[in-house]
Amino acid sequence: MSQSCYAMMVTRLGPPDVMQYQVMEMPEPKDHEALIEQTAVGVNFVDIYLRVGQAHAHNPEPPFITGVHAVGIVKNVGSKVSEVQIGDRVTYTNAGVGTYCSHVAVASDRLVVVPNNVSDERCAAGFVRVMTAQYLLKQMRPLHTGDKVLIHAAAGGTGQVLVQWAKRMGLEVFVTAGSEEKIRFVKELGADHVINYRTSDFAQEVGKITHGKGVKVVFESVGKDTFMGSLECLEPKGLAINFGTASGQVENFALQSLHAKSLWICRPTLRTYIADKHDLQTMAKEAFEILGDPSFRLDIEAVLPLKEAAKAHTMIESRLTKGAVVLVP
């Protein structure tokens, strides 16, 4: 037993304070695993979904360690590991292990070596968000210069990545944000049309700006509060992509609602897009091109000790943060 090896354990499903500090036995890597000493842990909404028990791809029973992404140094490797070596700085996500801990054994084919021009904190803040933006913008539907898209929660961690990358692709970017401060922020990111969803009906505003034609794709990470309005914003044959449920899960609705404009909807997840090792490495290479570009803005709201994980979740759940929160073991 080592005092330097610990985790923030979800002791029961519930509010942030259910995560409690717990000393652990140092993991021993199996044949195809590497032992990682974690240097930075990303905080993502999925961490909260798991903590509260919101239906997800997998819902572990307490006690468990939440979290899906971290950065660290390889300290030991199993006998059959070929992808990494001791001393490598690596990152991983959706690898089937919780990340709110100081040390973890991870399947080596899930690890990606982090280039020298990307810091631990920037990787922890941005890797999952940029990987998510990659499949949303590049793999869901062909998008071309001049296409109109709507991005909800544009001031959040993934939102700010989507806005900047969409602009680099030459898209016409509509966004929603919930405060004057956030509106100023997303304007700085380059958004073409910014709508305060708290003071305006965003669907009506999109309709006015597009003269009733709508947008090609809606990137929808809010869920319950905005999804049906998002459908109203779409052009015929448009696509609504729900990839997050910050306000709660989308409620049941009549499939016939899609009929009049032949609309498409989907609920993808990063886990599926990186399940194949080759896809993981290919997407990661493009993600690191973004993360390694200092002109690409990636705000970090706070860097907190891992032991303050409850504070981090409280900040994220408030939906008042602009950018990412990173935990340091």
How many helices? 9
CATH topology of the largest domain: Quinone Oxidoreductase, Chain A, domain 1
CATH class of the largest domain: Alpha Beta
Rounded mean pLDDT score:
94
Number of domains as seen in the coordinates: 2
Helix/strand-derived category reads alpha/beta
Distance between the termini: 17 Å
Binned strand content: 25-35%
User: Portion of residues in helices?
Assistant: 25-40%
Main sheet? 7 strands, mixed
User: What is the assigned CATH homologous superfamily of the largest domain?
Assistant: Medium-chain alcohol dehydrogenases, catalytic domain
Structural shape: globular
> How are helices and strands ordered from N to C?
EEEHEEEEEHEHEHEHEHEEHHEHE
Contiguous low-pLDDT stretches (5 residues minimum) are: none
Q: What oligomeric state is this?
A: single chain
Keywords:
329 residues; alpha/beta; Quinone Oxidoreductase, Chain A, domain 1; Rossmann fold; six-stranded parallel sheet; 9 helices; 28% helix
Describe the secondary structure blueprint for this structure.
Layout lengths: L5 E5 L8 E5 L9 E10 L2 H8 L11 E2 L3 E9 L11 E5 L9 E5 L4 E2 L6 H19 L9 E4 L5 H12 L3 E6 L2 H10 L3 E4 L5 H8 L5 E6 L6 H7 E9 L21 E3 L3 H4 L3 H15 L8 E6 L3 H9 L6 E5 L1
Parallel strand pairs: 9-10, 9-12, 10-11, 12-13, 13-14, 15-16
Antiparallel strand pairs: 1-2, 1-4, 3-5, 3-7, 3-16, 5-6, 6-8
Structure overview:
The chain has 329 residues and is α/β, with parallel strands linked by helices. The radius of gyration is 20 Å and the shape is globular. It folds into two domains: 6-126 and 276-328, Quinone Oxidoreductase, Chain A, domain 1; 141-267, Rossmann fold. The strands form three sheets. Strands 3, 5, 6, 7, 8, 15 and 16 form a seven-stranded mixed β-sheet that branches. The mean pLDDT is 94. The protein has helices at residues 45-52, 120-138, 157-168, 180-189, 202-209, 227-233, 270-273, 277-291, 309-317, and strands spanning 6-10, 19-23, 33-42, 64-65, 69-77, 89-93, 103-107, 112-113, 148-151, 172-177, 193-196, 215-220, 234-242, 264-266, 300-305, 324-328. The chain is 28% helix and 26% strand. The protein contains nine helices and 16 strands. α4 (180-189) links the parallel β10 and β11.
